[in-house]
Amino acid sequence: MNAVSVAEPDDSSAFPVSCRNLHKHFGIRKVLSDVSLSIPSGAVLGLVGSNGAGKSTLIRILVGLLMPDFGMATVLGEPALQLTDAVKMRLGYVPQQPQALNWMSVGNMLEFVGKFYPSWDREYMGNALMRWNIAPSHRLEKLSPGERQRVALIRALAIRPEVLILDEPASALDPVARRDLLREIALRAGESGMTVLFSTHIVSDLERVASHVCFLHEGRLLLDTTLDDLKETHVRLTLPREAAATFRERIPGEIARRRRPDGGLTLVLARNADADWPQAPIAAGGVLDTPNLEDLFIELTDQPGAAWFTK
């Protein structure tokens, strides 16, 4: 089974953000391995993975800041490494640690950046600074990491982007501030229909704002689906020790398995929405249940003795 959504070669321009067969190494360390992903127009996709999973590398490739070893990425129909100024004006990007123009005041930086964007929304800029209690006279380098992230998000949203890409936008925020920031993203996305990709290692963030979810682990995409379809298409199958010996080989729809301390097996299964779950392991005493998003992430990424099947 292929766990990722792959656009056909001549369909990449139909997606605001798309990548195909991305590979990336840093020295001998493999960071991305055959990553293919297409984000539909208007989707809010949460890219979740533990620290070191490859999220920032993938995002930097998508926005044209890093060259892959193999594969390609496109944004709004253009190769990510060759984006024209016209497309850059339609793209908002916030890195994990915003540091550009840190020597300027908040107000001066936003006014300076705004001159390059004909669609710059001064009203939104002013209202957002007031709502988040950020004084325009404060220098960026004197702000807390969370305040700098908020200013960077204001800068990205004030251009009224068609595509917004955020690398761990709430990592420096406390839970209340993180909720407010994510609500802002969801609100603006709903108002304008923009396409959003944001990475996070906090699974609960996805359920607040995302319409789609991807799990990235050790440079591989293990899951790509809509949140609405997730409960219909993914289950956990627990096999007792007696039955586990019968199912040593991968069964249809299996994307991960883990050996349990008691000798049994826990499998994660995926299927098409109109397909049936395999009956043989159920008849042998297997028990199906629907894990929540956090449990599913743990089953796929954080369990010792696990094996993954991405293809």
List keywords for this structure.
disordered N terminus, elongated, 311 residues, Rossmann fold, alpha/beta, 6-stranded mixed beta sheet
Describe the model.
The structure is a single chain. 39% of the residues are buried. Helix 4 (122-131) runs antiparallel to helix 5. The strands form three sheets. A six-stranded mixed β-sheet has the order 6-7-8-3-9-10, with helices on both faces. It has a five-stranded antiparallel β-sheet with strand order 14-11-13-12-15. The protein is α/β, with parallel strands linked by helices and 311 residues long. It contains eleven helices and 15 strands. It is elongated and about 70 Å long. The chain has two domains: 9-218, P-loop containing nucleotide triphosphate hydrolases (Rossmann fold); 233-308. Mean pLDDT is 86; it is low at 1-10. The chain starts with 16 loop residues before the first strand and ends with a strand.
Q: In the CATH hierarchy, what is the class of the largest domain?
A: Alpha Beta
Q: What portion of the residues fall into strands of 2 or more residues? A: 25-35%
What are the segments in which pLDDT stays under 50 over at least 5 consecutive residues? 1-10
Shape: elongated
Please indicate the count of domains. 2
Q: What is the H/E order? A: EEEHEEHEHHHEHEHEEHEHEEHEHE
CATH topology of the largest domain: Rossmann fold
Terminal Cα span: 5 Å
Number of helices: 11
Q: Rg, please? A: 21 Å
Relevant CATH superfamily of the largest domain: P-loop containing nucleotide triphosphate hydrolases
User: Sheet with the most strands?
Assistant: 6 strands, mixed
CATH 2nd-level architecture of the largest domain: 3-Layer(aba) Sandwich
Structural class estimated from helices and strands = alpha/beta
Q: What's the quaternary structure here?
A: single chain
* Order of adjacent strands in the largest pleated sheet: 6-7-8-3-9-10
The whole-number mean of residue pLDDT values reads 86
Helical amount: 25-40%
